User: Fold this.
Amino acid sequence: MGSAPKVVVTRRLPGVSLARLAEKAVLAAEPPEVPMGREELLSRVPGAAGILCTLADRIDSPLMEAAGPSLKVVSNYAVGVNNIDLAEAARRGIRVCNTPDVLTQATADLAFSLMLAASRKLSDAERALRAGRFTGWDPWGFLGMPVYGKTLGIVGMGKIGSAVAVRAAGFGMRILYHNRRALPAEREKVLRAEYRGFDALLTESDFVVLCVPLTPETRGLVDRERLRRMKRSAVLVNVSRGEVVDEGALAAALSQGWIFAAGLDVYEREPLVHPDLLAAPKAVLLPHIGSATLETRERMGRLAMENLLAVLSGTEPPCAVN
Ligand code: DGY
Assistant:
């Protein structure tokens, strides 16, 4: 019998049981409470057969090289896999796995929260109250945009986008969507959604919600020119990846009134946030919490573990990307 495979877990994570992993693998070292620095990660991976990592870990060619030919699986504790060089993993025969489905509803809840919060100026209003500026009911105070009955444009009608559409039906919204390809007519009927080209969706929508994965095609998708096409009354929400939006252009759009407001959960250079966005009262800014419920995070952890252990035991993982 061969020796147990070495596994690196890059951070202590909800739902990831070190005891369970230790039944089948040897843990390189106790995972830290905080994100592991690049140097530390590079020093832990040599000889590893599996890496269970988060979206903050860059799993690129030098990292795979440092791990060496023993590396069989990279199991990401996230649905997005833009932190992993997929082409390089494929070239080296490394399986890449992720955690879809289990976070769909939590992320759609957050997208809807951002639609409501940004359109009704919730953060701004709460800040004012806490600062002692609630001096009585004000007929002119914090006038927002209505959500009910408005037009929602979903960019990326995958699982999360569809879950946002289901919520929007309860708000009497007209639903437009854009994907690389239109959905089958049956699915459009279920979701009550109409396909639009990207630019047409931007000009027609009162709310634009970004649910696309980050790929070379979606990087910088919402730039100055695209923001200019949106309604002045529109609200932009991003729960996908920050790099899909040009943050500088968005800050300009908010300060110059090209759009009404924005709700963001993700940023171009996390954990940094563009200073002009930090200063923009019309932006509701959250620290990447789309999947942040304990129930969801525990399910992500269990799935990430299952993916990893399946590959190490030579069986098909439940959620492989390649
Ligand atoms: C993901 O899974 O990709 C989210 O951004 C974090 O849960």
Summary: DSSP finds 13 helices and twelve strands in the chain. The pocket of (2R)-2,3-dihydroxypropanoic acid is lined by residues 55, 78-80, 103, 290-291 (CB under 6 Å).
